[in-house]
Amino acid sequence: MYSIVDPDEDERSSPSSLDIHPLKLFDIAKSEGRPLFAAAPMVRYSKLAFRETVAEYGVDLTWTPMILAKEFNRSAVARDSDFTTSPTAPPTIAQLGANCPLEVARATTLLAPHVNGVDLNCGCPQSWACADSLGAALMQQPERVVSMVRAAQRALHDAGYGGRRSVSVKMRVLADPRRTADFVRAVEDAGADFLTVHGRTRSTRSSQPVDVQAIKLAAEHATRMPVLANGDVFTRRDAEERARETGTDGVMAARGLLENPALFRGDEGCPWEAVESFMAKVVKRPIPFKLVVHHLTEMCGSDRAGGTGGVGKGPLLNKEERMGLVGCGSMLELMDFLDSVRTLRRLE
């Protein structure tokens, strides 16, 4: 029913991350004097190989791409396509795109044995999602969100996972601060374990900075559950500053981690070792070739990359090398290309 990756022999003895409740991770981060570090749900990009890579470099909690609950419940093809895990997967939250409590309950029951929690997507701004009353459209329907949170919690309890898995919500802020506060209180009263707040409204462009004060307001109205701040985090310093200025318990990154999987470790740019780690995982947890190339162009081509990868300031690969990267036509050709660059540039 799911794409469950067979473990290697040495992986079978590894303790399972499924034994860790996400709220425990918040406690651990707090005891270490830092915010919890999370990898955002990203369409196409938050696949298993990438989740395992960022977990090596300081990410505490990872998200799957949004899973459409209705299709997931009805189609084995959708389940194989949308969700992949392994015995050594890092702590993982499965994000659901849904607008019906029954669909949420069914998907939660199916996913509960394989993830640390489920998350309701109330933040996706894409027009197709909002047209189907998914994502950010749900910010206008708090009663429906409340019913879905409660349905997920009941499903966990009935399946024997009550208290062992979490139910969370990822939201955007609203233009009216009072409605943002009302939404937060409703979600908390419904029994959500924690909340992620993206500091933009549905109509705010990603090129505009996040509204730090709106995130802070949302966090202030969550009196019993931890809150993650999401948006515009590209360095460890960004993360720590965002947590301080918003009073949140953790920080979630998306584009920053695509460019530099080691940002939460404190690396100022993507290290070459992260590129090699990702490639080693892709071999074991395959994803489409074009997606592999896209990940590598993000890691190796960002102006924010470099500095810790052995090439000084700037991108890991120069313009000519990036052209060679995107010109590769197969995984074998791509691996040979990376080996040649490493040998020529003596990267470690």
TrEMBL record:
Entries under CDD domains matching the protein: DUS_like_FMN (cd02801)
* Catalytic activity as recorded in UniProt: a 5,6-dihydrouridine in mRNA + NAD(+) = a uridine in mRNA + NADH + H(+); a 5,6-dihydrouridine in mRNA + NADP(+) = a uridine in mRNA + NADPH + H(+)
* An example molecular function term from Gene Ontology annotations: tRNA dihydrouridine synthase activity
Reported cofactor(s) = FMN
What keywords were assigned to this record?
Answer: Flavoprotein, FMN, mRNA processing, Oxidoreductase, tRNA processing
The entry's protein name is DUS-like FMN-binding domain-containing protein
Top-level taxon of origin: Eukaryota
Identify the InterPro entries for this entry: Aldolase_TIM (IPR013785), DUS-like_FMN-bd (IPR035587), tRNA_hU_synthase_CS (IPR018517)
Kindly give the Pfam families that the UniProt entry links to this protein. Answer: Dus (PF01207)
Biological process (GO) annotations held by this record are: mRNA processing
The UniProt function text for this chain reads: Catalyzes the synthesis of dihydrouridine, a modified base found in the D-loop of most tRNAs. Specifically modifies U47 in cytoplasmic tRNAs. Catalyzes the synthesis of dihydrouridine in some mRNAs, thereby affecting their translation.
Q: Does the keyword 4Fe-4S apply?
A: no
